[in-house]
Specification:
Layout: H1 12-29, H2 41-51, H3 56-69, H4 73-78, H5 81-88, H6 95-110, H7 119-122, H8 130-141, H9 150-159, H10 169-182, H11 188-201, H12 220-224, E1 241-249, E2 255-260, E3 271-272, E4 275-277, H13 284-296, E5 299-312, E6 317-329, E7 340-344, H14 355-366
Parallel strand pairs: 1-6
Antiparallel strand pairs: 1-4, 2-3, 2-7, 5-6
The structure holds iron/sulfur cluster.
Length: 375
């Protein structure tokens, strides 16, 4: 159904409800979260990075453990990347951890150990886009920058009945302009938090709880009687699926071979079992044999399948098939120069792995292989 474009400027009524009723509601219902008990820009920055793709309840224990390990920006800058990745393991989207680590070093080297307090400066740090910059600056320094994440976009699309694809750049710009016009310059951090909280707990994607919402009187979608019609999104393409075959290759000492992923790749810097993607119609054992030959320059015989693990990433799904392999010829050497390591199964916990590989390791722990089967 066509709808009028959102007003260029919010009305006086809109401003009243967004700047008074909404923050008052937030004060009454705000969840007690560890990053809300601090005004330390470093801690706020860490929480904002964690919350980018992670649910609040999942992020809390990671946040506390991460800050126990790296209580200051100096501690994070001094840490080894492997250590940072290990403490991030399970949270996913590992580029966030690599960026945090690099940004901490930049903060120490270029900003005297203080998280920058201006938009232009903070945006020079790796991993800090417009959303994170606005969040950190408003929460830590009281700067008037409005955040626009998925929750805020949904609230605005509903209140102002924005009927265009919410992911389109032009729509995002309109929504950002609205957020910029609505933010309370006196208390921007509280306004941003209230907007995000409303989207997370009341104005949810399905079954929004309109009777509990402080924006009811100005909400266009509610007036139309169809909150769930907004935000409008284009139909998604089907999620692709890949079969991945990996080899569990032991040496005579009973150690398994793992390799480190390139830092600029997806899951960069994490360790994994060697293997790769199945070609169309290729038998899985042949995929495993071919990949180990291409990646490591070795010939292996591929034995039984140890397990099969399904895992979903944001844009695709995989099924990981793990095969026990025996070395027939050659010495493993990475064709791309990535580090390789032979590691005892019990010591694999010392390395950071993507989640599907971690489940394979759990399988190896619960189904130990006999030494006689190693070769
Ligand atoms: S009234 Fe309902 S649809 Fe409108 S902002 Fe509130 S929760 Fe969302």
């Amino acid at each position: 159904m066509p709808s009028a474009p959102p007003p260029a400027r919010p009305t006086a009524d809109d401003l009243r409800f967004f700047r008074q009723a909404l923050p008052a509601w937030f004060d009454a219902v705000a969840r007690d979260l560890p990053w809300r008990r601090t005004d330390d820009p470093y801690r706020i920055w860490i929480s904002e990075i964690m919350l980018q793709q992670t649910r609040v309840d999942q992020a809390v224990p990671y946040y506390e453990r991460f800050l126990a390990a790296f209580p200051t920006v100096h501690a994070l800058a001094d840490a080894e990347l492997d250590d940072v990745l290990r403490r991030w393991e399970g949270l996913g989207y590992y580029a966030r951890a690599r960026h945090l680590h690099r940004a901490a070093r930049t903060i120490v080297e270029r900003f005297g150990g203080r998280v920058p307090d201006t938009y232009d400066a903070i945006r020079t740090l790796p991993g800090i886009g417009p959303y994170t910059a606005a969040a950190v600056l408003s929460l830590a320094y009281g700067r008037s920058h409005a955040v626009l994440d998925g929750n805020v976009a949904r609230v605005l699309a509903r209140v102002f009945t924005v009927a265009d694809d919410v992911k389109a750049t032009a729509t995002r710009r309109r929504l950002q302009a609205l957020a910029d016009a609505l933010i309370d310059p006196e208390r921007p951090g509280r306004f941003n938090e209230a907007m995000m909280e409303l989207g997370a707990t009341v104005c949810t994607p399905t079954a929004s709880r309109c009777p509990a919402c402080p924006l009811r009187p100005v909400c266009g979608a509610l007036a139309e009687g169809r909150p769930e019609a907004y935000p409008v999104t284009k139909k998604k393409a089907p999620v692709p699926h890949h079969d991945i075959a990996v080899g569990v290759l032991f040496n005579e000492a009973g150690e398994v071979l793992i390799q480190r992923r390139p830092e600029d790749a997806m899951l960069g810097g994490l360790w994994e079992f060697p293997g790769g993607k199945r070609e169309p119609d290729e038998p899985l054992r042949e995929t495993c044999r071919r990949e180990l030959h291409e990646e490591l320059g070795i010939e292996v015989s591929v034995g039984e399948r140890l397990c099969r693990i399904d895992h979903a990433y944001s844009h695709f799904k995989i099924t990981l098939h793990a095969f026990r392999c025996a070395l027939r010829a050659g010495t493993p050497t990475s064709r791309t120069g990535q580090p390789l390591r032979w590691v005892a199964v019990e010591a694999l916990g010392d390395y950071a792995f993507p989640r599907a590989n971690r489940r394979l390791i759990e399988h190896l722990h619960s189904h130990p292989l006999q030494p006689s089967l190693f070769g």
